[in-house]
């Protein structure tokens, strides 16, 4: 009796979601269960270098109206969320439209018109149906259909719910009655109305995220949602990736006599004044050095930020700041073609292990560091006034995903530049006060045990295939 291996197509519509499924336990767990894995992707990444079977999606092209309707769908959905919840914070997720060119202006005007026309629950359903109908008419859809007819996978697993390029492949799978599963990519995605892709089933990080998915999207049933956790944090638990401190310091030209903290940079949209925060932290560390503390600051920029906006601060505080670049590669002009390399997984894990704390503005790096029982300090003041004077409070902490905190003491809040030095001193003397609360937050956001996410995903996939084929 011959044994037929199960085949899974792992749909990677952009490079950003690559690290969760190519650099973690995900692939090996599939191999252990007898799956044949094919990465079906639209990225310039070299899958051959990792020895992975892959199939490139050649020149995917959306229907010309889909890009407009994607923006319409998001705007209407956020309008609906704001009305349902009676909460204006959802309006903060609406980004301004572009009028830089004639083509962009026409699209923006059409977006505004259609948003006005379809701004209702009924209109929202109509927009979603129209997007599906349009994408089902494209040559891209026909190409996807032909690929799936040829290869006949047992499941198509989409690694991100927020890319419209994934719509046609999943529609083609549905046409052939191949079950589809979609992974919700990030902890902040659902309140921001980023569900561009619909599937037969969804994998989410936690019970909290499952509640969000069902709360915001009434067309999804509870039986369609499986809580798996995310593979994103699995590398932190792989002992083979964790280096001795001496080796990590030598490879990165660090001084073993210095205690380093990590400043984790944000993207320019989230934190346009980020270089000023880096300056304030570096200034505080310099003052502590002058008091006799042996301290340094490692700067890890946001991986998709290749700008020169930090250069002057790094130069001014060269005695304090040690830049360690994320190991990502720019393979195209768009943000989703800036791809992580496997070495960055090791770098981040060891950075969290061998530094005393992380400092940033509202980043999920709080979770990377609490895995290693290291505290996080959040910048909690802004420079939005014309005089560039610090004012307490940052709007990002009003966002819905921060309401998942079990309490305020999950991090140390830096409410003014003058607070930074004394807060760092307190962290160095007593690093633990916020760690227990941060652990509770992490367990709420990501299903424990966190190092079993890939196992739970494959449990989910196997259960879905069995259900759909019996």
TrEMBL record:
Report a single Gene Ontology molecular function. Answer: transferase activity
Which superkingdom? Bacteria
Q: Could you list this entry's UniProt keywords, alphabetically sorted.
A: Transferase
Cited SUPFAM superfamilies: UDP-Glycosyltransferase/glycogen phosphorylase (SSF53756)
The name this protein goes by in its record: UDP-glycosyltransferase
């Amino acid at each position: 009796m011959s044994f037929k291996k199960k085949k899974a197509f792992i749909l990677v519509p952009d490079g950003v979601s690559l690290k969760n499924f190519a650099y973690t336990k995900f692939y090996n767990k599939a191999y252990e269960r007898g799956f044949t894995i094919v990465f079906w992707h639209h990225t310039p990444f070299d899958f051959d270098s990792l020895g992975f079977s892959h199939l490139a999606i050649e020149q995917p092209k959306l229907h010309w109206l889909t890009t407009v309707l994607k923006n319409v769908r998001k705007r209407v959905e956020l309008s609906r969320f704001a009305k349902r919840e009676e909460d204006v914070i959802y309006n903060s997720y609406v980004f301004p439209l572009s009028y830089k060119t004639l083509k962009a202006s026409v699209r923006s005007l059409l977006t505004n018109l259609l948003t006005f026309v379809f701004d209702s629950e009924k209109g929202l359903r109509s927009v979603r149906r129209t997007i599906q109908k349009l994408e089902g008419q494209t040559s891209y859809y026909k190409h996807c259909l032909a690929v799936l007819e040829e290869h006949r996978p047992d499941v198509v697993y989409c690694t991100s719910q927020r890319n419209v390029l994934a719509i046609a492949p999943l529609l083609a799978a549905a046409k052939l009655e191949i079950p589809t599963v979609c992974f919700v990519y990030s902890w902040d995605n659902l309140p921001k109305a980023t569900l561009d892709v619909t599937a037969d089933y969804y994998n989410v990080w936690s019970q909290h995220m499952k509640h969000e998915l069902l709360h915001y999207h009434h067309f999804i049933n509870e039986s369609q949602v499986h809580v798996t956790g995310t593979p994103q944090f699995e590398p932190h638990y792989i002992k083979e990736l964790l280096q001795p401190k001496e080796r990590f310091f030598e490879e990165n030209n660090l001084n073993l006599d210095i205690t380093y903290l990590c400043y984790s940079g944000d993207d320019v949209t989230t934190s346009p004044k980020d270089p000023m925060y880096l300056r304030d932290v570096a200034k505080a560390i310099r003052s502590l050095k002058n008091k006799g503390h042996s301290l340094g600051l490692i700067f890890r920029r946001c991986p998709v930020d290749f700008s020169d906006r930090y250069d002057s601060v790094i130069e001014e505080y060269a005695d304090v700041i040690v830049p360690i670049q994320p190991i990502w590669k720019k393979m195209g002009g768009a943000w989703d073609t800036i791809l992580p390399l496997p070495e960055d997984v090791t770098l981040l894990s060891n950075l969290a292990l061998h530094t005393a704390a992380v400092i940033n503005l509202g980043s999920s790096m709080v979770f990377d560091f609490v895995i290693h029982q290291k505290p996080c300090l959040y910048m909690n003041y802004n420079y939005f006034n014309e005089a560039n004077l610090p004012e307490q409070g940052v709007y990002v902490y009003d966002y819905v995903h921060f309401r998942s905190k079990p309490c305020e003491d999950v991090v140390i809040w830096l409410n003014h530049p003058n607070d930074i030095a004394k807060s760092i001193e307190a962290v160095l003397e007593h690093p633990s006060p916020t760690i227990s609360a941060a652990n509770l937050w992490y367990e709420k956001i990501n299903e424990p045990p966190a190092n079993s996410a890939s196992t739970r995903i494959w449990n989910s996939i196997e259960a879905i295939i069995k259900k759909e084929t019996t």
